[in-house]
Automatic annotation (TrEMBL):
Transmembrane segments: none annotated. It holds the Pfam family Epimerase. GO terms for molecular function: protein-containing complex binding. It comes from Zygosaccharomyces mellis. One of its GO terms (cellular component) is mitochondrion. It comes from the Eukaryota. Residues 6-80 form the NAD-dependent epimerase/dehydratase domain. This is NAD-dependent epimerase/dehydratase domain-containing protein.
Amino acid sequence: MTSKLLVFGGNGFLGRRICQEAVHRGLEVISISRSGKPPVLNSPLRERNWIREVCWESADVLNPSTYRRHLKGASGVVHSLGILLEDESYKRKLKQESGSANSPSYSWASWLPSIGSNPLIKNDPNFTYEVINKQSAITLARAFANTIEREGIDSEDLPTFTYISADRGFPMIPEGYINSKRQAEEELLRHKDVFRPIIMRPGFLFDEMKGPQNTRTHIHHLLEFLNMSNKALLGGNFECINGIIRPAVSIQQVSRCILSKITDPKFEGIVPLEVIKEA
Ligand SMILES: NC(=O)c1ccc[n+]([C@@H]2O[C@H](COP(=O)([O-])OP(=O)(O)OC[C@H]3O[C@@H](n4cnc5c(N)ncnc54)[C@H](OP(=O)(O)O)[C@@H]3O)[C@@H](O)[C@H]2O)c1
C-alpha cells in the first residue's frame, strides 16, 4: 500500500530529492511546507520535470488543522525537517548559499552559532530542538495515527511513517540535537500497531549534483579527506576514531533507501548509516 506520499519539508535540501525519487517510482506526491513553494533548482529543464508532478501545499507541521485533509487516504508520511543549531541564522545562510549560482565567499566562522548571527533579527521561539526535531514529529505522528484509526486499520498493509533522524551528534553541536532525535524515535516506535515506523539515521548530507562551492561542499570534502586518511593511515581499525569520523551520505542515496524501505511491506524500524550508504 504505497500510492499517496506526503513529504513534510518536501521543498528542503533532502525533502526535494525524496519527492523526486517518489515521483520516479510512480507515487502521488504531496509536499508540505510553510511556504508551499517548490524548490528553486539550477539543474537543466529536462531534469526538473518531476517538479510539475508534485503537489506543493502550504501548511504548518505544528498545526494539524492546516493539513489534516491531506492525511486522509495517505499511504505514507515523511517527516523531513529538523535543525542542527538553535540559531536560525545558519539556515538563512545555507539557503542564501544554495539559492545563488555565484555563491558568496563562505566563512566557517559565520556559519557557527552566535558568531555570525545578527542580534537585531528575532529568533522564532519554536526554533528549538525540542519543538522542531521532536514535538513536530510527535504532533504529525499523532495526527496521522488518528486519521488511520478513523479510516480503519488494515494490519496486513499498514501505512508508513518515515522520520529523518541522524547517525549521531556532530563535533561542536550541542547534545540537545541528538537527544531530541533519539527521543522522537522512541515515541514514534510506540505507534507500531498503527503505522510502520521507518527511522532513517543519515550522517552529514551532500548533493551528488555538482553545484557552486559552498559551506556544505567544503564540509563534505573535509569529511571525505578525514575518512580516507583514517582508512589509509589507520586501516579504519580504531573504533573510537571510526565513531568520530563518520562518512557523509548523499541526498540521492538517502532518498533511494527511504523509498526502498517504504515499498518493502515487511520493513519497520531503524535504518543505520551503514545501510543507507549501500543504497
Ligand atoms: N542536512 C544534513 O546534513 C542532515 C544530516 C543528518 C540529518 N538531517 C536531517 O534531515 C532532515 C532534513 O534536513 P534538511 O537539511 O533537508 O532541512 P531543510 O533544508 O531545512 O528543509 C526543511 C524544510 O522544512 C520546511 N519547514 C520548516 N518548518 C516547517 C513547519 N513548521 N511546517 C512545515 N514545513 C516546515 C521548510 O520549508 P518552509 O520554510 O517553506 O516551511 C524547509 O524547506 C532533518 O530532519 C535534519 O535534521 C540533515
